[in-house]
């Protein structure tokens, strides 16, 4: 006993310190893991929200660009497709991703119809109204997406599908070249 410490006390303290260090290390690893998981989730939500904002902005663009003609509409298609794909990459809902891919062409088709009606000297009110309704529907679903539970999300997807397929000639696909 060089320092006046009993050997069993010395070993007891050493073992206690080792146990405390192991427990502290495991707790620290657990905290780091949870923090990283939470940061990854928050980063994914931020990317999805940015894609949604870009999608809404490009969809809204059809309301003004339709009157600029086909080239302006087709230029906007590229922006809308890019935002749509970015949103799809962040989505965990495969059904919504499948519906979302159809919307850029749907909006183009509606914008082309409004543009052609205006170019022909007619009143594009009906065609513009269809375009406006489609943009409002997709905007509503996009803005509400993060606040919605799965049942509401399913309803938004069904509403988008119904709006896209309603009426003749509103199915998605590339615009006609005639």
How would you describe this structure to a colleague?
There is one protein chain. With 178 residues, the protein is mainly alpha-helical. The chain has a domain of 119 residues: Four Helix Bundle (Hemerythrin (Met), subunit A), CATH 1.20.120. The protein is rod-shaped. The longest helix has 59 residues. The protein contains six helices and no strands.
Number of strands: 0
H/E series, N to C? HHHHHH
- The quaternary structure here is single chain
Largest sheet: none
Strand content: under 5%
Mean pLDDT: 86
Q: According to CATH, what is the class of the domain at 47-165? A: Mainly Alpha
What structural class do you assign from the helix and strand content?
mainly alpha
Map the helices and strands.
Layout lengths: L6 H59 L4 H21 L3 H7 L2 H17 L5 H20 L5 H16 L13
Entry summary:
This protein is mostly helical. It is built from six helices and no strands. Helix 1 runs parallel beside helix 4.
Question: What are its keywords?
Answer:
single chain, mainly alpha, Four Helix Bundle (Hemerythrin (Met), subunit A), 0% strand, rod-shaped, membrane, transmembrane, DUF4760 domain-containing protein
């Amino acid at each position: 006993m060089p320092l006046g410490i009993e050997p069993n006390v010395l070993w007891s303290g050493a073992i206690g310190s080792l146990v405390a260090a192991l427990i502290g290390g495991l707790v620290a690893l657990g905290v780091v893991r949870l923090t990283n998981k939470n940061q990854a989730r928050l980063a994914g939500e931020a990317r999805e929200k940015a894609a949604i904002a870009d999608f809404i902005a490009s969809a809204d663009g059809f309301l003004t660009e339709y009157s600029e003609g086909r080239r302006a509409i087709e230029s906007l298609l590229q922006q809308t497709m890019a935002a749509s794909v970015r949103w799809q990459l962040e989505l965990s809902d495969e059904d919504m991703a499948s519906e979302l891919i159809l919307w850029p062409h749907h909006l183009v088709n509606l914008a082309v119809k409004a543009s052609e009606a205006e170019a022909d000297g007619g009143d594009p009110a009906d065609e513009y109204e269809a375009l406006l309704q489609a943009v409002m529907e997709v905007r509503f679903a996009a803005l509400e997406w993060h606040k919605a539970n799965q049942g509401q999300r399913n309803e938004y997807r069904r509403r988008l599908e119904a709006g896209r397929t309603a009426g003749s000639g509103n199915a998605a696909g590339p615009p006609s070249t005639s």
